[in-house]
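= Protein in question =
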Amino acid sequence: MHALLQDIRQAVRQLRKSPGFSLTALATLALGIGAVTSVFSVVHAVLLNPFAFRNPNQLVVVRETVQEIESTGHVVPFNYLHYARLRADTKTLEDAAIFQDFGASVAIDADHPHILGGLKVAPSFFSILGVQPILGRAFTPEEATDGHNQVVMLSYETWQRLFHGDVAVLGHTLRVGGEPQTIIGVLPASFRFPSVALGPDFPANADKGGGARTYEIFNPFVPYAWDKSNDIFNYDYSVLARLRPGVTLAQARAELDGLQKAHTLTAHLPVHLGIAIQPFAQDITGGVSTALWLLFAAVGAVLLIACVNLANLQLARAVSRERETAVRSALGASKARLLQSRFAESLVLAVFGGAAGTFLAELGVRLFVTVAPANIPRIQEVHVDWTVLLFAAGLSVITATLFGTLPALRSLRVQPQQAMQNTTARAANLREGAATRNLLVAAEVACTIVLLIVAALVIRSFAHVLNQARGFDSSHVTVAQVDLFSPPYGQSQPNFRGAQIAFIERALDSLRQIPGVQSVAMTSVMPLTGDYWVDGIVRPDHPLPPAQEPKVNIRWVSPDYFSVMQVPVIAGRSLTSADKDHPDRAVISQAAARAAWPGEDPIGKRFNDPTGQAKITVVGVVADTRTNGLKQVASMVYLPFWNFPPWQVSFLVRSSLPTATLAPAMRREIWNVDPEVAIPTLKSMDDQVSDSVALERFQTLLLASFGVAALLLALLGIYGVLSYSMQLRQQEMGIRIALGADRSNLVRLVMRQAAYPVAGGLFAGLALAMLATRAVESLLYETKPADPLAMLASCTLLLLTAFLAVLIPAFRAAKADPARMLRAE
């Protein structure tokens, strides 16, 4: 221990004598360790940290499969009757709970209502999770029946925000959807239930602003009347289950799948049912796990490149201290002591760099959480804890080992007699020293080209998403979502449909009166929020099995929808105000026309109304659009809103006024029509487009930043090695010039020396990139992993960077003064 402390004190003295090197090394390590630790904090919180539920590894998400629609995505949400049957018959599940996401209009006293994220859950939901309320109680089976379900539970944050933590909150009444509901319980502060997607082909439950919905209130789940009578449709719900102790996922899958197949046969269903079951944690984070691991690997590669640079600098310092090493060896220092003394310097750098990096990691985590898209699951749980601090400490030790091993081993190969006789330059010019430095440069180049190619592929993919034809124009359009969850529009009212229609018409008229407004429309679903109300086109003249019916998204719109969104009419006509008297009219997209009437003129053709109440006549065909998501062309059917007015309405206003000016006027006009309605989202359509690709943009910016950082480190690494090499070879260059060597030949000599490690690293990096790009293929959109343009651009950029790094040392060597160099010799 005394020897170790002595070596550490000497290392600190040596570093103080070289402030330039010390500050460079510390800054490099602090930034590298800080960046890696920040990203690890996210990976740990989102992917590695277990959920705060009882035995979370036993929790599973269960969905159904329908064999006949396998080509279009055969995994679907749950049918209520199927859930009830499986829950009663299963032996492998301890229990199961059905639940449904909803946006709740919540008001206290006479305030304007606010939209809160909510869940309707079966009474067994909280017992499956192992969660107990800190106040009150959970739901009872009796409360999961119609007429007894006017009770509500609050999240801890909602309790604090709305009632300031008042313990007398139990028994208080909230207006939820305009209906009074009694608060019976408050959940613990640690309880956060994440968004669960209805299925792999459905977007995760989210608010209409594009972020992940935070669940703040909970109601008992009560099935609708049609849920209890329909055995092959209404796949609308999510199911959470807990495996019995000792039961494996494969055993549960086999049993439930067998029960589904048996029911298919005994009930003579026209479809073949099956089961898809997945661990809860994997289901929640599966959509972002690849992207997060990619970011972690990318920032790790940047740190590795930084360590290579530091190793090269340490090698140079080891060469300059060969005489010192020789003297210590001659005086009897053992090889172990020499090795320890060299590692001590790397350890000191790593400790101080790691401490600074941990501080930067705290800032990096805060920045990450602030700018990261809200739809990353568990993002609010990201913080620096003891696990992260231990990771940072371990990372510091690893970096010290990475950049300290080669210089330390070099000290063991110093021959005292030779080192005392030779000059430092001659010792450094040994082939072994040059080969080691070149190998490190090649490794640095290889890591850099891999990172550049991955970043280029992701950038190309994101550019394809943004620059493709969308089929609509989002500029100068402001969108306001309005939720009609108040008593006048409730199903218990005798004329609730008429009330909905009257509100929509009055709101459209009021919005048209705003100065500067050009046109106004409404749609039942906010654009770019994914598929919704997916149904089959049922042709009376050409019936097909349910599984073979062309699937379309149903939208209820006002007549001006296509003019506001600037969607061109291809055939027939658009909807008009006259269709109020004939709501059995429809406009379809080109994709829907091709799928339902291939090779035919669809104008005048008829299909069944999605509500099963009438026959619909096609009066027009409009161009295909990407209004559900920028990555897919949606197959659409547009019906006049008088046909089936929605409870969620999105008003679209085209105006030359900016959204910041227009939004207050829109909110005022809507509340003038009905002050009880909630307006959870009001923003420009351009912002909605931007929010819909927030995760892809964030991922692209981070990878591009890591790529630039790697490129700069490669520039510094190549420049540093060559500069040091030319400094050691200055006598040789002086002799060459004195003997008549042409300066251009010296430039070529230096460039040729740099070309070997750069070329070797480039080819090795390309080989590694072919493997790495396969891992990111699932993240790419219309971009091949072996995209030639991305690879060519990356290689060209790296070669230009290497060329710039070589120029200064090459011209410095060519302009050297031979007389001064020979006098030094």
